[in-house]
Write a structure and sequence with these properties.
Layout (H helix, E strand, L loop, with lengths): L2 H8 L12 E6 L3 E7 L19 H17 L8 E13 L8 E12 L2 E10 L2 E13 L3
Antiparallel strand pairs: 1-2, 2-4, 3-6, 4-5, 5-6
Length: 145
Amino acid sequence: MSDSLSHALASLPHGPEFRFVDRLVALKPGKTGTGEYLVRGNESFLAGHFPGQPLFPGVLLVEAAAQLGGTVAQTDPTIPPLANLKLTAMRNVKIFGSAKPGETLRIEAEINGRLANLVNVRVKVFVRETLVMGGELTLSGDLPL
């Protein structure tokens, strides 16, 4: 992974236990990005979702997409990063499937609008070539002083 990609990913505020982007495979700073997350099978939440038939939770597909969207937004060279960036709204989010241990999520995010401290992101998550989640997310943060 190039230095700029690893630096962008390092901007995620999440601890390793709640990070759902392992690596960036493409980044157009402030515009678009593609990331991946390998569902390892040892994630603690998989034990209960579902016993004997683990599936990556749909809500965490949304979280993975929000994390990638935030990473893309925070790399815009023309706009200072927003402090405390977080997921604040979802529109037209549809969950069509999930991932099992050993499968890799391919996450795509495209910034499609910004207004003050709000960032609108169009997101998609795939397993192999199958779309498992898509929609629009709004992230918000604190404007720099």
